[in-house]
Design brief:
The chain is mainly alpha-helical. The protein has 6 helices and 3 strands. Strands 2-1-3 form a 3-stranded antiparallel sheet, with helices on both faces.
Amino acid sequence: MKLDDLVDPFVNAEDGMIYYYRRSTDEIVVLVNDQFADDDSNDKLAEAIDDNRDDYVSFPTEIDIHDYQIMRDYVDQVADDRQRERLEQARGAFRRFRSTIEQLGLLEQWYDFEAQAYHDMAVDWCHENDVPYEE
């Protein structure tokens, strides 16, 4: 499977959704929290996962992915002291952080940094779970 496809569950992790890699079919499947599911395909998938634990590997959930740490790591690597100081003051809320990044002209750098962070998480996850991937 392409690494870009394996990065998507890290980027798109959200409450109420659990992504799994299915080894036997080399695909990603999504189990939706019952309150959001509207058909029995979700129940069938949950049953399949329960019955075949070795075939399904869960991706980290939104709770496991620390977006705030990614912001902190980004701020720590900003070379310009004044920019870094402004970002440190703005990092309490993502909207304020994003607005400050835009004002400082760092949006493209932030997107690159964030994409690399998700890429690195996916590579680590693949190694930890013996999931093969192609770059």
